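Friendly challenge for the regulars: who can give me the structure tokens for this chain first? No prize, just bragging rights.
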Amino acid sequence: MKKKIFEEYSLIFSLFIIGSFFGFVHENLLSLLKGQYVLRKGLIYEPLIPVYGIGLLAFYFIYRSLPLKRYNKIQQIILLFLFGFFLGGLTEYIFSYLQEKIFGTISWDYSYLKYNLHGRTSLWHSISWGLLGVIFYQFLLPILEKAQGYLKIKAINILIFSISVLFLVDCSISSFACLRQVKRRKGIEAINTFERLLDHYYPDEYLNKVYNNAMFPKK
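First reply, four minutes later:
Bragging rights claimed.
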């Protein structure tokens, strides 16, 4: 029972890391193609953007349970597109909203596009998510399902556990540093040793370089 639970955890965490790393590569390639390259990251130390990892998990668990065999090929593609359209747009919207409410910033703003929803997502991006959903189901999902067999290898489980520990540490530091930055913006002084350490090692100048695409929402 414990082994099965750990294998399931290994699957979930592996997909999360794969999606997060893909997001890191994707964002940095876009920045490079725009000719204004700056390093884009979602965490202070690791080359990961977690929102993409959450998105991949949502796609995986929803798409693998879709009862598509009762439909013909054209109907399947339409349904896959619609699921991706709404799932991707919803994920973008929720994480943009949470980032604004928790940290007081946003990492993307699509207000400049004609058809957008509060600048958090747009028709164009939702269409892109829909197309990605079709590609994911047709090509990536079969590969991921075949790769699950590797999770039974002990060395891979040890590697996944080690990466989990590093991720937890990085995620904790990144979250505490950003929450402390929110307090600094409000003029709240450090009240204990831990907050003073955060101010020393992760000042605004440093965090602004790490999260260089973070913006204050328009009022």
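The two ends are 52 Å apart (CA to CA). Residues 66-152 form one domain. Your move, everyone else.
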